[in-house]
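Quick one, T. Sequence first:
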Amino acid sequence: MCAPPDEDFAQRLAGVGVPLVPVGRSARALTTGSPPPSPANLPRRAAELIAGQFEAVTAAAEGCDVLVATGAMPAAAGALSVAEKLGIPSVSVTFQQLTLPSPHHPPLAYPGRPFPPEVTDNRKLWDLDARSINALFGAALNTNRASIGLSPVANIRDYVIGDRPWLATDPTLDPWQEPADLDVVQTGAWFLPDERPLPAELVAFLDAGDPPVYVGFGSMPMRDSQDAARVAIEAVRAQGRRVVVASGWADLALIDDRDDCFAVGEVNQQALFGRVAAVVHHGGAGTTTTAARAGAPQVVVPQVADQPYWACRVADLGIGAAHDGPAPTTESLSAALRTALTPETRARATAVAGTIRTDGTTVAAKLLLDAAG
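Structure tokens:
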């Protein structure tokens, strides 16, 4: 597994006996410590990312039967170029459909490259998306391709996606609509069963009262983590609920020493979400799906990229509430929690949980064996 050299990733892989091949810089450091992506730094970051892929993935993929590429567009382009050079089959995977061209939804705009407001036709927007990707990443990718004797790529997005991309999401949460110009294979979401026990202190907290509300923003740094924690805890307390606060990459922490709050770090969400009243989170694909599988009502406070999409899906399915904007106040988050904590939302979340597929990894593994011949 080639991935950024973060300790979180290394520990998770070590738990299943898979070595980590470090590529590039720490994802956490880039997310929490660097300036956000901008028109000025995005091409440079992409060039570094692509060069790192060519170096690390080439060594790792020697002798492999198939390569699976996912992640940021330039990273996937670099990895797929390595597979092309080595002459091995490859598969392109995405964990949300917003990067797959479709007449049914628009693309995500890149930082500093907004789409013209007068253009509303999705097909035209996807054409503009392809041009943006070529402008941002074309020179870096094709320079590296030339260095290993590969011809230039004219349309980077279509090269990365290919003719038959895999969509590793659940059909209930993320339904792919036909017709479209792609032969998309929707495998279901990829999850490894988490067998880790919950910490004894957390279990004692859960057993000591009514189900609490979980608050965590995963890999999102949050603009003011101290204020974010205060807002969240006050909003949950306003509903008469206890709170489990997950530190995450925002380093959220408790705001006082009252016994109605408990702080956790890395934890088995599959086990925890089955014991909470609701999950307040950033709207990452993994957290959204884990909460949906557990039947936990959700409040999604989207920050970037595909997260507003997942927030809308949660609201549209009636399994929670979508917060309007990335910076909640105590009042706005309280209003969203009131929706999520109703018996009707709980009943709907329970019903939807029964429709979430659990065989996504098995489906993908069998398809990979076929691809490897």
